[in-house]
Amino acid sequence: YLLDYYVIDSRPAECQLLPLSWISLESILFNKFNKNTDIWSFGCLLYELFSLGEVAYFGYSSKQVIDSVRSNLMPPQPLLCPNGIYKLMCKCLSDIPTLRPNIKHVYEQLNLYSG
């Protein structure tokens, strides 16, 4: 279970565990957190919502998750996920932070699917 989490700071008083599959590559490699890394995490949330709770990269080791993210390997499209949402999800999960959409674009795209 603990292997599914990433340690942000190794000092005991500062130690924070974050779910590895929800952390962008730049956060893992450079401890960098910003709007682009938040969009990455939102892409992970979309995946879990449309896969009914399945975690992206489930069953992968920590190294395999990092290698997959580094290679821009996307999790498969969930069966219940419309193509447009999956495209948005993949943009959110881009390995290049500047290619990820901003939150306004995400909002506009999701609004296309609201009733």
TrEMBL record:
PROSITE patterns: PROTEIN_KINASE_DOM (PS50011). Keywords: Kinase, Membrane, Receptor, Transferase, Transmembrane, Transmembrane helix. SMART domains: TyrKc. Residues 1-112 form the Protein kinase domain. GO terms for biological process: cell surface receptor protein tyrosine kinase signaling pathway. GO terms for cellular component: plasma membrane; receptor complex. This is Tyrosine-protein kinase transmembrane receptor ROR1. PANTHER family: TYROSINE-PROTEIN KINASE RECEPTOR, TYROSINE-PROTEIN KINASE TRANSMEMBRANE RECEPTOR ROR. Pfam families: PK_Tyr_Ser-Thr (PF07714). It comes from Aceria tosichella. The chain crosses the membrane at residues 39-60. GO terms for molecular function: ATP binding; transmembrane receptor protein tyrosine kinase activity; Wnt-protein binding.
